[in-house]
Amino acid sequence: MTLIPVCSLVDFPEGARKTVNVGDTPVTVLHVGESYYAIEATCPHQSGPLGQGVVLPKLEATFMGAGKRLVESFSETDLTISCPWHGWEFDLSTGAHCGDPEVTLSTFEIVEKKGELFLKAP
Ligand code: FES
User: Fold this and answer.
1) For a Cys staple, 43 with which of 67, 83, 98, 107, CB 3.0–4.6 Å?
2) How far is the CA of 5 from the centre of ligand 1 (A)?
3) With a threshold of 0.90, does the pTM exceed it?
4) Measured from the CB, is residue 83 less than 6 Å from ligand 1?
5) Whether the Cβ atoms of residue 44 and residue 51 lie closer than 8 Å to each other
6) pLDDT at 16 over 80
7) pLDDT of amino acid 61
8) Which CATH class is domain 2-121?
9) Is the pLDDT of residue 67 over 90?
10) What is the pLDDT of residues 107-120, one digit of tens each?
11) What is the distance in A from the centroid of ligand 1 to the CA of 67?
12) What gap in Å lies between CA 94 and CA 104, rounded to an integer?
């Protein structure tokens, strides 16, 4: 495991984003609410800037059966990031595409040590 420096905790307020490289792969680090996330920055669809995408609560739908309406609500725990080019959405924690389980991006853990943030790379 390798710790890749991101920046100082004080320089990364809520809403901040920064891209670091894990080998040759750009990874966007985000501070959302009280949590830190790190996900591959490039969209697998057509290489769009996924790391610049909008972060929203995950939309969850429940099929209530034939002839009944679909119930939709926003998750209180799970977040998605949406690619600004064509809207592909990914779970911010797992990297899984929201509609195609065959498509998954790498995500990474962010740790804090002595006031500095680091990305844990394998
Ligand atoms: S490049 Fe990201 S959705 Fe198309």
Assistant:
1) 83
2) 28
3) yes
4) yes
5) no
6) yes
7) 85
8) mainly beta
9) no
10) 999 999 999 999 99
11) 34
12) 8
